[in-house]
From TrEMBL:
Pfam families: Fungal_trans, Zn_clus. GO terms for molecular function: DNA binding; DNA-binding transcription factor activity, RNA polymerase II-specific; zinc ion binding. Residues 37-67 form the Zn(2)-C6 fungal-type domain. PROSITE patterns: ZN2_CY6_FUNGAL_2. It comes from the Eukaryota. One of its GO terms (cellular component) is nucleus. Residues 1-36, 76-101 are annotated as: Disordered. This is Zn(2)-C6 fungal-type domain-containing protein. The keyword Thylakoid does not apply. GO terms for biological process: DNA-templated transcription. Transmembrane segments: none annotated. It comes from Lophiostoma macrostomum CBS 122681. InterPro entries: Sec_Metabolite_Reg (IPR050613), XnlR_reg_dom (IPR007219), Zn2-C6_fun-type_DNA-bd_sf (IPR036864), Zn2Cys6_DnaBD (IPR001138). Keywords: Metal-binding, Nucleus.
């Protein structure tokens, strides 16, 4: 196993500072590298020896010597961090076992508390479902992922430019490990980045000199940094806090690179890929509500790019590969929006589209653009010396490409029905069904759709799950995410109440659906424990499922079977099994990683609900 070096990052616990003065700066040549001198010497325009903890000039002046966050960061790399070996121009992705542990050393900054303003609360349509949205209380509801700190820590100066971001790149070996971890843990669930094209751009970027890197596309740099951030979240370290700090620094660098690219007025496929990943990072980092807000910008940019339109109509001159990439990216945005609104109970945004699910076919085209989309502005020019023409077709796509496309289509079909039947009515505080027959018909639609999906994507058989864990962990991840999302939504439908329509909570079916959903989390925890500790969306669904089961069980006074009337609810096998599942879920969530305040609040809410079960 290759030795893993420490990420050379150190972030001091001082406040955010900037070398800017109060007067307008004179016009001068833009700096291509960050300012490393102390703020006092920068302001006085005097020479600084950059000594620490105080430079000589500040000692002589008897003034306070402070450095910017970036100056401290780079100083720790140059002087305090481990030296990096000379990066290789080309390298293969490291094996999975090489990513088992990544020691990280960083100083944790002092957080600045920020509270959100209050707004009207949401009234749920079931007494057993979690109904308050994140903005419904004067203080943050920690179990919703409402972090107290700003989601993007500001380490950057106003004139540093891309050179400032390039200056804090990890070493090539560390970057290789983080990219490999991203494609191992994140890409199977959200397969929207073409792996071969990404690695081609990645190796090309790392082969550049330092000055050439500063002339690179800022959006490419942003995509690289958010991939590093996501990969860091899934790396085993001795300290969760240190890992979090490193990951947050990388995502801040990604957002800064997007700002440099003017992403609010200009967008590309890479821009939106980076933004999708930033949203998922924020969710995992206890900032789900910030992810919702940031996702709003993502949706607008996706609409502005025309991703919601059929590529055959919108970009007819694009290559087949570009069109399929646009479809994959739209599905990723659509899916993220739909299932985040399921959890936050807010209105969906990706409601206008004419992109058909079936348009993402299994056809493997014979032309690859290596990530450079022409966006329909010109006919694709095939370079006879391009890698796509030199390499055989089998090398252009990974062996799991067809399996991924079946997964994408399945999740897409599911998101379509969920957005229409769950997200929209819940966001308006309306019941999901108007009568018992209406609910039966709706559940049958879900079950018929379930039957149309690939068997290995829907199976919950213990032996088949065990085989997938050993032979195909990529498909296992897809199976677990599909099952969790699908049965969670079925649970919501069965638990929904409509008094005017005579629709009551279907206790038996709601508990069974909740158990099917929560079983996916138990498999996740058993076979992919690090991943299960990171994904906020999975954890929060499981939390809601356990909470619903506990609340339903607390309201039961007798078994479901008429033959057991007068007996204790504990005699009902389904009740007893659901109670054991809820207890097991509580035990896991009590030790799972993540933000301490969110973890504590979740377990306290579940313990309170569980204590109400008196039998």
């Amino acid at each position: 196993m290759a030795e893993t070096k420490a990420l050379p990052v150190s972030v001091p616990g001082t406040g955010i500072s900037s070398p800017e003065t109060g007067t307008p700066p004179k016009k001068k040549q833009k700096r291509n590298k960050p300012t490393l001198s102390c703020e006092e010497c920068v302001e006085r325009k005097t020479k600084c020896d950059r000594g620490r903890p105080q430079c000589v000039a500040c000692i002589k002046r008897q003034s306070t010597c402070r450095y910017s966050e970036v100056a401290n960061l780079i100083a720790s790399v140059d002087h305090g961090g481990p030296k990096q070996e000379k990066p290789r121009k080309h390298s293969k992705p490291p094996r999975a076992e090489e990513t088992a542990a990544l020691p990280i050393k960083v100083q944790i900054p002092t957080p600045r508390t920020q509270y959100r303003s209050a707004s009207l609360s949401s009234s749920g349509s079931s007494p057993f479902l979690l109904s308050n949205i994140p903005y419904s209380n004067h203080t943050p509801a920690a179990y919703f992922g409402l972090g107290s700190e700003h989601p993007f820590a500001n380490y950057w100066t106003s004139r540093g430019g891309l050179g400032e971001v390039i200056g804090v790149l990890p070493g090539k070996e560390q970057a290789d490990i983080l990219v490999a971890k991203y494609f191992d843990a994140v890409d199977p669930v959200y397969p929207m980045v073409h792996r071969r094209n990404f690695y081609a751009d990645y190796e090309r970027f790392w082969s550049l000199s330092s000055s050439e890197k500063q002339q690179a596309d800022p959006v490419l740099v942003a995509l690289h940094f958010v991939v590093y951030a996501m990969g860091t979240q899934f790396i085993s370290t001795q300290s969760d806090h240190e890992r979090t700090q490193i990951a947050e620094f990388y995502v801040s660098a990604s957002q800064q690179a997007l700002r440099i690219s003017s992403y609010l007025s200009r967008a590309s496929v890479r821009t939106l890929q980076a933004m999708v990943l930033i949203c998922y990072f924020l969710m995992n980092d206890n900032h789900a509500s910030d992810a919702w807000s940031f996702g709003g910008v993502l949706m607008r940019q996706a609409y502005a790019m025309g991703l919601h339109r059929d590529p055959d109509i919108q970009t007819p001159r694009c290559s087949i590969s570009d069109k399929q990439q646009r479809r994959k990216l739209w599905q990723a945005i659509f899916f993220q929006d739909t299932f985040l609104t399921v959890l936050l109970k807010l209105p969906p945004t990706t409601t206008f589209s004419d992109v058909r699910v079936e348009s993402l076919t299994d056809e493997l085209d014979d032309y690859m653009t290596n990530g450079v989309a022409n966006n329909g502005t010109a006919d694709a020019v095939i370079n006879p010396m391009s890698i796509s023409n030199i390499a055989p077709m089998s090398d252009l796509y990974p062996p799991y490409e067809h399996s991924d496309r079946r997964y994408i289509r399945s999740m897409w079909h599911m998101a379509n029905i969920v957005q229409r039947t769950v997200c929209t009515p819940r966001s308006l505080g309306r019941p999901l069904t108007s009568s018992a027959k209406d609910r039966l018909d709706l559940v049958n639609q879900y079950l018929e759709l379930h039957e149309s999906f690939p068997p290995l994507l829907t199976t919950s058989d213990e032996n088949e799950i065990m085989n997938l864990a050993s032979s195909n962990p990529r498909l296992l991840r897809q199976n677990l995410f599909f099952r969790s999302n699908f049965w969670h939504c079925v649970m919501i439908i069965y638990a929904d109440v409509n008094d005017s329509g005579g629709v009551e909570c279907d206790v038996k079916n709601a508990l069974e659906a909740a158990r099917m959903a929560i079983q996916a989390f138990f498999h996740f925890w058993e076979y992919l424990r690090v991943d299960a500790s990171v994904w906020w969306v999975f954890q929060h669904r499981t939390f809601e499922e356990a909470l619903l089961m506990a609340r339903i069980l607390a309201a039961q006074e007798q078994p479901l079977s008429p033959d057991q009337r007068g007996m204790s609810p504990a005699s009902d096998p389904l009740f007893q099994a659901a109670k054991e599942d809820a207890r097991k879920c509580l035990d896991i969530l009590d030790v799972v990683g993540g933000a301490p305040e969110m973890q504590k609040t979740r377990t306290e809410v579940l313990k309170t609900a569980f204590a109400d079960i008196t039998w």
